[in-house]
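In response to a reviewer's request, we include the raw inputs and outputs for one of the modeled complexes. The two entities were modeled together in a single run.
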Amino acid sequence: MNRWIKVKRIFFVTAKYFLLAFASFLSVVPLVVCVTTSLKSDTEWMNSSKMALPQNWLNFENYITAWRDVNMGLAFRNSAIILVFVLIGSILFSSMLAYVLNRFRFRGNNLIRNLFLFATLLPGIALQVTVYQIMTSLNLVNSLFGYIILLLGSDIITIYIFLQFFENLSKSLDESAIMEGCTYFGVFFRILLPLTKPAIITCMILKGVATYNEYYMANLYLQDKDKLQVVATSLYKFAGPFGNRYNLICAGVIITMLPALIIFIFCQKQIYSGLSSGAIKG
Amino acid sequence: MSQCQEHWLMSFGEGQMRSRSKIDFKIQWEKWKRGQGAQKAMVGILFMIVPLALLFTFTYVPFFQFFQFSFYRMKYLGPRTYIGLRNYIDVFSRPELFNSLKLSLYYLLGAIVQLCLALFFATILSSKVKGGSIFKGMIFFPFLVCGIAIGYIFKFFFTHGFVLDSMLMVFGFDLEDLPFWLNNTKINNFSLVSTSIWKYMGQNMVLFIGAIMSVDPNLYEVAEIDGANQWHKFIYIILPSIKTIVLLNLILSITGSIAAFEPSYVITKGTFGTATYFVMMDRLAHGNNQKVGLASAMAVVLFVIIIIVTLFQKLIFYYAFDDGQDDSGVPRKEVKAAKKRDRINRKKGLLQSQMTTQQNNRAVNPEISGEEKQKR
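The model returned the following structure tokens for the whole complex.
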């Protein structure tokens, strides 16, 4: 009897690890094959099996070609500009809004919360049908500025993260500061904002990754692909002239993926906790 | 609000008639401006104006424009003709649009598979697993890959004779027996759905792990003493404690499956019968013909579906949830009553709490109160 339980336990443990390993394998295999392919020279790519490992693991020629031909430098510059402005703007605006909604009691407070909540129901891609009209009439198509404004407008998760954070921040803190003669303005910028550092970091990571990976609106509104390409849309350039040279395309894909990978390795915990706090909004 | 305005107007009017009360009013106004009320109002308006303006220009104005545009035949620029309900009739009668709605069934099926897998792996990973964070990281990472990169990765992955086929050939499949994963209309939608699972399963899993972690660990210990195995723990402890988030995700996947966009858009560009509702919408609105009116009508239909599903969700959460019990197992009525009690207590206010703290202080630290008395 006892031995039977032991056998059963061993079986379950092996099954558990096998399934986990299998799922992890399936998750990373498309990416790993991309890495190995990107290290192959043209002739190697044409002649060998697609799953074969590269002959020379340090052959970075494709990366250099991809970087140069697609003008990745410009793409990264544009993405960096967008990221800086979007992150600063969205954190500032959403923390201010969350502060007012959480600390001030006024009529319409609930209405505003519900307006933001309802907005989460409307899928962004469908909205672009009419947003395009608005962007055209505001003359914001084909400008980085317009794209930044648009990204700032679709900013609901960050608001919820800040709202939750303020909820857990004691009110006695700002009440006593007001008693001491501090202005509401000062309370927010000098006392509360420095305290929300964890929320700021979470928002920066979530919003940063989302902004960096955003491709649909970038493709729609940044139409001048030579001057206004961002990292995500720069990949589109591989479709035309590079056709089926997947060793080059894979190199490009890996280049665009690297920043996200680095952020992920260093900020795993924040990403996980940010996702869970952003998801429970109801 | 209206009362306040009236008052304000009245005082203003009187002020015009009698200069003295005008000065009074001015003094009052100055006082108010320097006081906290004005400051509060100013900060409130200042802090909210930008996000609200953005919300209206990029969410609510477009939202209402859908209803307007859906009655016209129009492009973004140029003349518009009013055509009544024609667009709505088209949405339901054009075979390719109706077909794209049917495609969402594939994605719904995929979403259910995805939820089950996520739940399974979340349960495994929240027990003791060596190297758990590495497995978790590997399964989660696809969520952070850019959409267009996913397009290339899977075009490469699924191409005939490339990655997937080579892997299957290792297991003894013949290349000639293997289908064209992206071109064969019988299976290409399954291929696309599988990429969607590949990307989002890890994210669901992380959410579930977060929910499972918030379960009181003592429950497991008690269950173990009672002789529960893993399956019992899952059924009686884990599942009841995370049912809210699971059900929420399940219901959200209904709208999510209609709104499925990325796999079809980036991998096949909607060719070979893979164009989902959103891909059709994108093509109609931003393609060469710019049928903005028809696309708007499609959006309106989608919104109606979303609203129905959301109401349905609220209804389920309100009624069907274990005859009105909250997650903590306390009946909803009692929760409400407790909240009410709380509110009343708060209104009764400071006095009581001060008294109790004083009493507590005395009870805990008689010496201090003794000292206080001495001082007095």
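As requested, we also summarize the result in words. The longest helix of chain A spans residues 2-38. Chain A has a mean pLDDT of 85.
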